[in-house]
Structure formats: structure tokens, C-alpha cells
Amino acid sequence: MTNFNRRDALKVSASFALAAAAGGFSCVEMAKAGPIEVPTIDKLSVRVLVDSASDIFFRPQTANGVTTEPGRSADSLRPLHSEWGLSLLLEPQRGDQKRTFLLDYGWTPEAINGNMDLLKVDASKIDTLILSHGHFDHWGGLFGFLDKHRRDLPADITMYAGGEDNFCQRYAGKNALGELSDFGMLDRRDIAKHDVKLVLCETPVVIGGQAFTTGKIKRNSIEKVLPNTLVEFKQKDGAGCNASHYLPAEMEGKIVPDEHIHEHATCFNLKDKGLIVISSCGHVGIVNSVRQAMEVSGVEKIHAIMGGFHLGPAPADYLTQVVSEIGKLNPDVLIPMHCSGLNFTREAQQQMPGKVLTTTTGSRITFGI
Residue 101 is part of a domain; what is its CATH number? Predict the structure, then answer.
């Protein structure tokens, strides 16, 4: 599962179009291949709607011009809800133009919907949806969110997702009886039922004139995919993933360790500061993700690396190596969340003193003046 059948983007698009026609995926389109013109923004605000930890004693922090400040519940008798998962509200600004993107949706609708209420987030301002990858702790709250807020969103709202393998059946391993434990399967038909257009970003895409995605991330660093879920490459009755356009035919029906072929990162180019790379889980490697953002954008300066890095289960020697490689990228700020792990935060603070900012559910992170 490390040497995939790589084909050029035009063949990928053509193959997917045929598969989509056969399966009737009327709301799905592939992002067009080719170079993109990366926009520059003046400001970015990130609100952590859902993360894995809460801290009512959280205090504002600042590092290299980036600030984090707490977000408090509007109801003193109802705390913000933290759970294993991630959801970020991204609010970039370019000149007088302001946009609002929702990146990932946490594990449960109760968490994202409840926290939006308690943080007084106006859903009607959300104009774009983004999905990083097909893990349930990143899309489990999606349909409950849409059930509650779809009428508030633009009629033509679009979701930008990484690629076809978002829709594969996933398993959280095996239980004590040796049976596979279900970890969900994102069904594109449920997205269509909520009248959401879906764009698969296997190649880089500009979003809303202010963000860009990495597209499929090349794996050319020391990093490896650490153990996570199992994935099944199968499609039946319109559900599941059609892997024929990016995997060899013999992979059809196989259940194998998940390598997140099309996990992508969401990125911004901040004026006079450099790139902000947001990796929701970083299964394919946070260094790989940042390098891909640099290659796509042509921007060498890294202002911030943030999000989940999936290094909680990393062995100590491997963790030390990865943090050293991150240090070579010379980011101004490093902001670990979700699955990054306390072990990662400690190691990063040791190797990169003064550059690591922490957050909690509800936090607001501000980039730019």
C-alpha cells in the first residue's frame, strides 16, 4: 500500500467522470488539474469550535505576532463540549472582502451545534465547507450540523473534500472477538440530500479567492503513516469508494491499513508573513503537508503550522526526528491540536522554544494585524 498507481490528472478526471456517471453521483465534480494562482490575505481568524480538550483557566498567549485567546461559553451553566475530533471556523480577510469557511465537523452534532450556540457563532455567515479526510471524528457532526443549519447557508454552498477515498468504509481495528469495529462510511448520497455541491480536490484548488488546498500530498520526507484505521476499497449500491481511478484493480474489495491517499491540508498565504498550513490530522506527515503547500504556492516562508499532526502514538525517537524536521522548516509559530499529542507538544517546546502556542476548545487564534 505504499506504491500507488499514479496517473496524470487528466486520466484521473476522465476515469472518475465515467465512474460517477455509472454510479449517478450528480452533485460531485473533480477539481480541474493545472497550476493555481495562490491568493494573498491580510488577516485570518480561527475559532476552535471542537477540539479534544477544554481549559477554563486558559489565558491569552502571543508568539511572533500570533495571538490565542480563550472563548467562553455564553451560558455559565453550560460548558463548551470537548470530544475527540476537530472543527475549525476560518475567517480570512482580503482587503474589504471577508469569507467564512467551516473546516471539519467533530465527532458528534451535539458538540459542534452546542458549541456554536454557546460561542454565538452565526451559521448564516458560513459560505464554504471543507473536509480534510474521511475519518468519523472529522465528519461525524456534519449531517447534524446540516440538519440544523442548512437553511441558513447559501443555496449553492460547496464542500471541498480531498478525494474519492473519503467515501471508503473504515474500521477502528478489531474487537476482543476478532470482529472489525465499524468507524463509519461517509455516504455522498447524504451530502446530495442536503443539497450540497461536492468538489473533490485531488489536485490543488483555490477556495473562495482566499484559501488554497494542497491536493494530494507527496510523501518525500522521513515521515511514515502511523497506525490508525483500516480501510475497505469497495463500492456497492452507490455507497463506498470507487478506487478504480487511482488504485490497481487488485485492491478492489481489500481491507488494508489506511494511508489516507487524498487527505489534504487547507492553507493561506498571509501578506508579508508567509504560509499558514492547517493540517486537520496530518496522517500523511506534517512535514510532507507543509512541503506540498510550499510547492503548490511557490512561497518558501512558513508563518504557522497548525492543527492535528497525529503524533500522539509516535515512538520517542521518531517524534524527536519529526520535530527536528519541522524545525528545519523554520515556522514562526507551531500550534498543535487534536491528535498531535502531549508528547509532541513537550518535544516541540523543547526544540522550538518560544514558538509553540497551545489552544483549547473555544479558543480564537488571530493572524495579521
Answer: 3.60.15.10
